[in-house]
Specification:
- The protein is mainly alpha-helical.
- Helix content is about 70%, strand content about 5%.
- The chain is built from 15 helices and four strands.
- The protein has helices at about 1-15, 15-35, 40-45, 55-75, 80-110, 120-135, 145-170, 170-180, 180-185, 190-225, 250-275, 280-300, 315-320, 325, 340-365, and strands spanning about 50, 140, 330-335, 340.
- The protein is globular.
Length: about 375
């Protein structure tokens, strides 16, 4: 088994196209980011970082009013612009806290009007419990973790999808084209152990892809923006303003990478399955690529309205790997009268799809016959 695994890993990692694409894509990422040092920006946060109390809110409002008075009388300096940004962040935190408290009060009142032991009651009660744990009254200079989180949603998903297609789509298809499949099928353990080796190699390759761009993302962000802000609440990011999850940014980064990896594993197994069905590598890449890109194309390019079926897109491989839509709002599924959060549902869906793809792959190869 070890020799088979080493053989399959060698087949994957000796593809020069993987490294070419990786270097090109990471190069394009760096160009598009146009990274610049922003040391001075973090300094403006020093006096305000930490818990935001009522006293701090009052002080920030007074400082903002004074700044605006001088702003109108004199030409603003870069330092003044940075202070303005800090005061805006504090004002946003205050509004979020007020909105959160209003939602909590509404839910408490609404629950008294709903019949207990119903899905609606359980759903609203879950929402209330989650909001009660959210604390947005914190401020940190969080540029580094914020950019890391956004990277996974955009470039990270693109990198993972592209490299899984290039690295895994030829695994079976190339063997069909070279006749190697007949040799493996004719050996004693050629089918089952060979498939297990391919699956293990695909999982190791998937981990390699994510770890490489994950390390790049971490190092590049800390180098440019510094190493602070990990304790900032998730709600300080615009995309997650109304998220009911009480994560700080460091915790969410780990959660995000875990769910991204789970989606990537599911997609990797799907690519293997399609490769086993297709005798030509280009066809395998096209079919797998279409499945990966279709959810994005429907929403972004074609702008197709799916109505009640639109939420299905949240559980596609692509959207699970993007992660954002699972955590940016309160969404649940109705499972026999009990609410299940989208994030938990996505984990279950990916696990089921991964197991199904692996079993179907084993069945497909078992049915193969030596020519």
């Amino acid at each position: 088994m070890k020799s088979l695994l080493a053989f399959e890993l060698n087949k994957i990692f000796r593809q020069k196209s993987i490294y070419v694409v990786y270097v090109v894509l990471l190069g394009l990422v760096m160009i598009s980011l146009s990274a610049q040092y922003v040391v001075g920006e973090s300094v403006s946060y020093k006096d305000w970082e930490g818990e935001l109390t009522s006293e701090k809110y009052t002080q920030a409002e007074a400082a903002h009013d004074e700044l605006m008075k001088n702003w109108n009388e004199n030409r603003p300096r870069i330092e003044d612009m940075r202070k303005q940004g800090v005061y805006e962040q504090i004002a946003v935190a205050k509004r979020l806290d007020e909105t959160n408290n209003m939602s909590i009060n509404y839910l408490r009142s609404h629950l008294t009007e709903i019949e207990k032991q119903t899905f609606e009651y359980r759903k609203e009660a879950l929402h209330l419990r989650m909001l009660e744990n959210v604390n947005v009254n914190k401020l940190y200079y969080h540029k580094a973790p914020a950019e890391m989180i956004d990277f996974v949603r955009t470039f990270g998903t693109m990198l993972t999808g592209a490299l899984l297609l290039i690295g895994l789509a030829p695994i079976f298809s190339n063997e069909y084209m070279t006749g190697m499949d007949q040799l493996q099928l004719s050996t004693r353990h050629g089918r089952r152990k060979g498939v297990y080796a391919k699956i293990a190699a695909a999982l190791i390759y998937t981990a390699f892809v994510i770890v490489v761009w994950g390390v790049f993302n971490l190092v590049q962000r800390i180098f440019v923006y510094g190493d602070g802000g990990w304790s900032a609440p998730l709600q300080q990011l615009f995309q997650y303003r109304y998220s009911p999850y009480d994560y700080d940014m460091l915790t969410f980064i780990f959660v995000q990478l875990g769910i991204h990896a789970l989606g990537a594993v599911g997609f990797a197994l799907l690519v293997l399955l399609i490769s086993a069905w297709c005798r030509h590598t280009i066809l395998s890449i096209l079919v797998s690529g279409a499945i990966f890109s279709l959810p994005i194309a429907i929403v972004v390019f074609f702008k197709i309205e799916l109505g009640m079926y639109e939420n299905i897109l949240d559980f596609t491989y692509t959207n699970v790997m993007r992660v954002t839509d699972l955590f940016d709002r309160f969404e649940v599924l109705n499972l026999f009268g009990y609410p299940v959060l989208y994030s938990y549902a996505a984990i279950v869906v990916m696990a089921i799809l991964s197991i199904a793809a692996a079993r179907l792959l084993l069945y497909t190869m078992k049915r193969r016959e030596v020519a």
